[in-house]
Design goal:
It is a single chain. The chain is α+β, with helices and mostly antiparallel strands. The protein has three domains: about 80 residues, no CATH class; about 90 residues, PDZ domain (Pdz3 Domain); about 80 residues, 2-enoyl-CoA Hydratase, Chain A, domain 1 (Alpha-Beta Complex), CATH 3.90.226.10. The longest helix has 25 residues. The radius of gyration is 23 Å and the shape is globular.
């Protein structure tokens, strides 16, 4: 589920600038063909629109804001999970996957083209207020979430501890929208929660963070010490997270050398992850 978003955030802008520059060179020196011609024509249109907006829009605009907005729009046409992250957004994502950040404690996603609650995190302001899995978030403060990317929605709901945010919720079976005023708090996510149920070990994974594999290993060791008859692994409402963390979890249930997962590019290049653990749970 994870990519290398930082590289994208720094490289895409220069690529567009380089492409526009190449367009000038192409126009003076030679005629593009095939896909190059199509790309050149579209970039020429983009450049013309950008120029018109900068010259004639009713308010002053910043080229950086316009170009980043165009990039977000471009990636938004792909699928709900592709997004452009600025360095600031990438830093926030790193904070979240480490398990601590300032916010209201909601795991969100896109369902039926609407911003939806995957699950409130236990013990957080959203959980205590009664926000439920399956709720649709229609507004953050006074801003509509229609056509809002996941990253932008996360940014709007994040904030320093003690600050307020209003969420307007549409809930199935409730005719009128519900408005929740939440006080942001420091959200600490424990991705691994374990306990004993009779003679069974129960472990719940709330998401895949950097420390998830290590914390799961500790829970499994405790189960072994208590000689449990079996283990229940609960992944309900888990929104995902780091691919490497998911591999760390999987290999604890697989024999060494077993293929866990692979990714395949459009060109056919495969990256494979194999289980390395020699002491998997039986």
């Amino acid at each position: 589920m994870e990519q290398q978003p930082r590289r994208k955030s720094w490289v895409v802008g220069p690529m567009i600038a380089l492409a526009l520059l190449c367009g000038v060179v192409i126009g003076k020196g030679w005629e593009p063909t095939g896909h190059a011609r199509e790309t050149y024509e579209e970039l020429k249109t983009f450049s013309e629109v950008l120029n018109q907006v900068q010259k004639h829009y009713v308010e002053e605009t910043k080229p950086k804001d316009l170009i980043q907005g165009a990039i977000r729009g471009m990636l938004g046409t792909l699928d709900p999970h592709s997004a452009y992250m600025t360095p600031e957004m990438y830093k926030e994502m790193q904070v979240e996957t480490r398990g601590e950040f300032g916010g209201v404690g909601i795991q969100i996603g896109v369902k039926d083209n609407r911003l939806s609650v995957i699950a409130p995190i236990e013990g957080t302001p959203a959980y205590r207020a009664g926000i439920k899995a399956g709720d649709f978030i229609t507004k953050v403060n006074e801003d509509s979430t229609k056509d809002l990317s996941l990253m932008d929605a996360v940014t709007k709901m994040r904030g320093p501890k003690g600050s307020k945010v209003n969420l307007t919720i549409q809930r199935d079976g409730t005719p009128e929208p519900l408005v929740f005023t939440l006080l942001r708090d420091t959200i600490k996510i424990e991705s691994v929660k374990s306990k004993m149920i009779d003679n069974l070990g129960y472990v719940r994974l709330t998401q895949f963070q950097e420390a998830t594999g290590r914390d799961l290993s500790k829970a499994i060791k405790q189960f072994r010490d208590q000689k449990v008859q079996g283990t229940i692994l609960d992944l309900r409402n888990n929104p995902g997270g780091l691919l490497t963390a998911a591999v760390d979890v999987s290999e604890q249930f697989l024999p060494s050398g077993k293929l866990v997962v692979y990714t395949k590019s459009r060109e056919g290049k495969k990256d494979e992850w194999f289980a390395k653990s020699k002491d998997q749970l039986e």
